[in-house]
Amino acid sequence: MSNEFIKPELPSVGIVAEMESEDRALLGNYGEFLPAQAGQKIITAGEDQNYLYLVISGLLHVTIHVDGREKLVARVEKGETLGEINVFDPSTASATVTAQEFSQVWKANRSDIAEFVKAYPVAGSSLLTGIINVMCRRIRGMNDRLVDSDTVDILGKFW
Length: 159
What we know:
single chain; alpha+beta; Jelly Rolls; four-stranded antiparallel β-sheet
């Protein structure tokens, strides 16, 4: 893959999959496209994090520190997003996100998204629906993991 940054367009994947290409092009103007070199941190745990990120290309790793060691939490690829909750409820980042290869991301803050929704309500509704769908899938996944971990704890105490 080339390390050359080309102003990309938002691909028809993830939270913008249901949007028309013209609407994705408009949305791209409400945030900014950023290149990230391998090893570059995009989000740092503990720092303010007020952005939604959509991965345009490349591979990112999400890590946390546990008992003084770095633990891989997720691999994030094209079409996936980060920071959905912080767009609506700004806080500090709970994990660090680092590019593993040359990557391109689009980032937007709450104001960018609100302005887009106000200017283009139909497309904005589609964007918000996409964000909500991602958040719901993640909540369900976390619930499943919690249930599995509780079951393991209960069985472990039993045996």
